[in-house]
Amino acid sequence: MTKKEDALKIAHAVGVLWERHSAEITQKRIVAETHWQNITSGKLPHWMWDALIQSFATNGGARHWENVSFLRSAFTTRGHEDPFSWPVVLLYSDKELVDWLGVVANPHFQRWEGNRRWLVEFANEYRDAEKLSRLQDGLAKKDRASCLATLNSIAGISDKYARNLLMDVGHPEFMDNSLALDSRIGKFLWTLTQRKHAYSAKSSEKWTESELVSIAHGLKISAWEMDRLLFWFAKSSVTIL
């Protein structure tokens, strides 16, 4: 099939998924937008750190973030400090920092040691409260391209996570023109069209981010909505096919 014909197949599958799950995705979008409102109103003074540890915890599988979240809740519900909150992290010795952030990084992922090292490096580099604030304020005010350049300059943050991190927190510049292209989306695209994906492809055979954004817009949904739809429900597309 031609790529144009394959694009119609993708649009059909995404359209069916949207009919089935639009309510859930709309609710997730509202949560993300509310999160951003809390950031801009100053209610989340360390939002970049929280977003960063979530990104590294999900690197290698989203389920590990559930484990980390459970651990954080177990501490706080028993009257203890969250061991991964930024104020607590700043109090750790070098050894404690390595040990605790090693828990955040997914131990079952092949890049576990690298992820732990990058988290430690970030924590040490931004111990100065003003430096973290400048980073966060800059990201809040920058356009999409500038945000991507800033995040890509931080060790361990790939193209996917540079997008996903700011999509998770509801950054307005990432709510309609970005997809965090991961293995779930890749499997969905391959199953439908036998084509891989890339943010910008030299080969016309691969799906680019901009092409997928266009498919989303053709369905009158945002790229953010399409991304989250495929992340959460792409597996159910097997029944559609």
Approximate shape: globular
Largest sheet: 2 strands, parallel
The secondary-structure class comes to mainly alpha
Number of strands: 2
Number of helices: 13
| Distance, first to last CA | 16 Å
Order of helices and strands: HHHHHHHHHHEEHHH
Strand content: under 5%
Report low-confidence residues grouped into runs of 5 or more: none
Percent helix range: 55-70%
- How big is the Rg? 19 Å
Mean pLDDT reading = 93
Numbering strands along the chain, what is their spatial order in the largest sheet?
1-2
Question: Which helices and strands appear, and what pairs or packs with what?
Answer:
Layout: H1 3-40, H2 47-58, H3 63-77, H4 86-89, H5 94-104, H6 112-125, H7 129-141, H8 144-152, H9 159-168, H10 183-193, E1 197-198, E2 207-208, H11 209-218, H12 223-233, H13 237-240
Parallel strand pairs: 1-2
Helix pairs in contact: 1-12, 2-3, 2-6, 2-9, 5-6
Describe the protein:
- This protein is mainly α and about 240 residues long.
- It is about 65% helix and about 0% strand.
- A two-stranded parallel sheet has the order 1-2.
- Helix 1 packs across helix 12, helix 2 (about 45-60) packs across helix 3 (about 65-75) and helix 2 runs antiparallel to helix 6 (about 110-125).
- It starts with a helix and ends with a helix.
Compact description:
With 241 residues, this protein is mostly helical. It contains 13 helices and two strands; from the N terminus they run H-H-H-H-H-H-H-H-H-H-E-E-H-H-H.
